[in-house]
Write a structure and sequence with these properties.
single chain; alpha/beta; five-stranded mixed sheet; four-stranded mixed sheet; 10 helices; 13 strands; rod-shaped
C-alpha cells in the first residue's frame, strides 16, 4: 500500500461518498475506485459496503481506519521534520560585548529572542572592553561585536570598523556621577575642569569610556587622578557609593539600580563627545545565517 491509497481511503470514509471524495482528492471517480480496490486487494478484505445511496465502512474498514489515519499523520510529521532541518540553524555564534550599553540595548532580551528563534545554535558570549573586542573582530575570533566609542570623527576613540560591516545602535550623553556628600553634589552641571580636581574611579584601559576620558582630559591639558581601575560597572558604582571617587558614565548606565542615591551631573562643555554604540559583524563568521538573524533582531540597526 502507498500513502496515496491511504489518503483515498480516509477521504472516502470521512465523506461517505466516492463522488465527493474524488472531488476532494482531485482524481476521477474511476481512479479513486481503482485505488480503493488495490488497497482492499493488498489487505485481503473489503473496506466499504456500497449501496445506491451511501458508502459505509465494513468491520474491516472500521478496524483499519485509525491505523490509516495514524500512518498518514506519521508521514506528515516526517515531512515536517525533514523540511525543518532545511531551515533550522545549528553551529556556534560567537558574540562579544561592552558592558556599558545601558538602555541602548537589552542584551539578555536580545540573546533570549535569538535563542527562541534558533535553539540549535550555541551562543558563546564574552565581555570585554571595546579595544579588545575590535582586535578579536578583526582577527575573526568573534562573529558579532557590540562595541562603543566616542562620537567625534577622527578621534582616537571613534569607532573603527575598517572593512567590517557595522550599524550604529544609538548614542547618548555622558554624565558625571558622585556621592550625595561630594563637594559637587549640590550642582546640576559641571565642566571637565571641575572634575579634574577629583579622584576618579575608572574602568580598565581597554574599555571605551576610559579611553574617552583620557582623551578628553588630555586634549585640555588636564591631569586627573585615577585611584581605582576596575573591570565591572557595578564595582565602579560601588566605589562611588562609598564616596571614594567620582566617575563619568553614559547617562543610562548612571541610572542603573546600583547607582540609586548617587548624584548625576550634566557636563556642559560644548565639545563633550556623545557615547556611541554599534554592532559589528566579523569578517568570516562561523555561521553567516545566524549572524544575519542576530543582527536583524537589534532594534534600529541600519547596516
Amino acid at each position: 500500500m502507498d500513502l496515496r491509497q491511504l489518503e483515498h481511503f480516509v477521504t472516502v470514509a470521512g465523506e461517505g461518498s466516492f463522488t465527493r471524495a474524488a472531488e476532494l482528492a482531485h482524481v476521477t471517480q474511476s481512479g479513486l475506485s481503482a485505488s480503493i480496490r488495490r488497497l482492499e486487494s493488498e489487505l485481503h478484505a473489503k473496506l466499504f459496503s456500497r449501496t445506491t445511496r451511501s458508502v459505509g465502512l465494513t468491520d474491516a474498514g472500521a478496524a483499519f481506519l485509525p491505523h490509516a489515519q495514524a500512518m498518514l499523520a506519521s508521514a506528515g510529521a516526517g515531512r515536517s521534520a525533514v523540511a525543518h532541518t532545511a531551515t533550522v540553524l545549528t553551529g556556534t555564534l560567537r558574540v562579544g560585548s561592552e558592558q556599558c550599553l545601558g538602555d541602548l540595548l537589552d542584551l539578555p532580551d536580545l540573546l533570549a529572542a535569538f535563542h527562541r528563534r534558533h535553539p540549535g545554535v550555541e551562543v558563546q558570549f564574552e565581555q570585554h572592553g571595546s579595544d579588545l573586542l575590535w582586535e578579536r573582530l578583526h582577527a575573526g575570533q568573534l562573529d558579532v561585536g557590540l562595541v562603543a566609542g566616542g562620537s567625534r570623527p577622527g578621534s582616537a576613540t571613534a569607532l573603527r570598523p575598517g572593512r567590517l560591516a557595522h550599524a550604529e545602535i544609538g548614542r547618548e550623553q555622558l554624565v558625571a556621577v558622585c556621592h550625595p556628600e561630594h563637594r559637587l553634589a549640590h550642582r546640576t552641571e559641571v565642566e571637565w575642569t571641575d572634575l579634574a580636581k577629583d579622584a576618579f574611579a575608572d574602568l580598565h584601559g581597554t574599555w571605551a569610556i576610559r579611553r574617552i576620558l583620557d582623551e578628553v582630559f588630555g586634549d585640555r591639558g588636564l591631569r586627573r587622578h585615577s585611584v581605582f581601575s576596575v573591570n565591572d560597572v557595578h564595582a565602579l558604582l560601588g566605589l562611588v557609593q562609598r564616596n571614594l571617587a567620582v566617575t563619568v558614565l553614559p547617562a543610562s548606565v548612571a541610572r542603573k539600580p546600583e547607582a540609586e542615591g548617587l548624584v548625576r551631573l550634566s557636563i556642559t562643555d560644548d565639545d563633550t563627545p556623545a557615547w556611541l554604540a554599534a554592532v559589528v559583524r566579523g569578517p568570516a563568521p562561523a555561521t553567516p545565517a545566524a549572524v544575519e538573524s542576530f543582527a536583524a533582531l537589534i532594534p534600529g540597526a541600519a547596516w
